Amino acid sequence: RPxxxxxxxxxxxxxxxxxxxxxxxxxxxxxxxxxxxxxxxDVTLIGASEACVTxxxxxxxxxxxxxxxDGATLSTFTLLGPEAGSPSGNYGIKAGPNSGSPADRLTDxxxxxxxxxxSPRSEIDLNGVDGALLQDITANGGGTAGVGIAxxxxxNITLENISTSGNAWGSVAIYLANRGVEVVRLDAVxx
Length: 191
Fold this sequence. Notes:
- This protein has one helix at residues 10-17; strands at residues 3-5, 23-26, 29-32, 37-39, 44-47, 53-56, 63-67, 73-80, 91-95, 106-117, 122-127, 129-144, 147-152, 155-167, 170-175, 184-190.
- It is mainly β.
- Strands 1, 2, 3, 5, 6, 8, 10, 12, 14 and 16 form a ten-stranded parallel β-sheet that branches. A six-stranded parallel β-sheet has the order 4-7-9-11-13-15.
- It is globular.
- It starts with a strand and ends with a strand.
- The mean pLDDT is 88.
């Protein structure tokens, strides 16, 4: 059941009202977040166009989008990452299990046709993810510290058509946690 988002608080309201499998369509426009956007259900959040849908998290301290739902998809928008407060904890998109248990995994997520910019730590951070496709991604730190894309304690990750720039610590970082074999496939990645 598709839902159309328009208005300041529409994104979180649409996610809160959704059930697993829903598609949430985001109309062209700028959506200024007043708090972290929590994607905690298996939904598809899809913008009308990457160039004309902007989710503005620049006034936040912490995560712009916190993705904690197995099977969720984020697609076709631009995210202006959090810039307020301490840069050490500011991530554009943070994806991982929400249980707090190091053994848990977030599975089968997709992030595609997304531009993330200006996050002081990482534009996209996957931590404890098993199974993800990141495709057609632009990660531009705009001269900030951190990396474009960070993969921590994650496995079976595919990066396709990725462009990173302006991240002082590097483009793509892979951090191992000695929990087994980690598979990361890189295809058409530009640094």
